[in-house]
Amino acid sequence: VQLVESGGGLVQSGGSLRLSCAASGFTFSTYDLRWYRQAPGKEREWVAFITSAGGITNYADSVKGRFAISRDNAKNMVYLQMNSLEPEDTAVYYCNVFWRNANYWGQGTQVTVSS
Q1: What is the pLDDT of residue 50?
Q2: Each residue of 8-32: pLDDT tens digit?
Q3: How many CB atoms lie within 10 A of CB 81?
Q4: Separation of first and last alpha carbons in the chain
Q5: What's the DSSP call for residue 87?
Q6: Per residue in 57-75, pLDDT tens?
Q7: Which of 3, 49, 61, 109 is placed for a possible disulfide with 8 were both Cys, Cβ 3.0 to 4.6 Å?
Q8: Residues 107, 113, 114, 115: is their CA dihedral positive or negative?
């Protein structure tokens, strides 16, 4: 299993970013996917969830209404559109799949929001 995140960067408060995660090594279209983030000095926290077919999504309260998770099963890609970014959103963002009773993570992509 390989997950490769991209799209992070430095953005001003109120700005937007779109993160991407390219997946391989498993049957992508049959697995639910998640985004997590980890801020400096804090534990990794769940951000967003999407079912295998993309029909159901769910979000942490802290990002609800600002972030949107989506996927393209034809391309083995999952995305996180982040709008109205706040300094508190600064973190390394990871995509995640739970496959064969184990969690898999990418290397993460840094998002920094300046005030």
Answers
A1: 98
A2: 999 999 999 999 999 999 999 999 9
A3: 15
A4: 37
A5: G
A6: 999 999 999 999 999 999 9
A7: 109
A8: negative
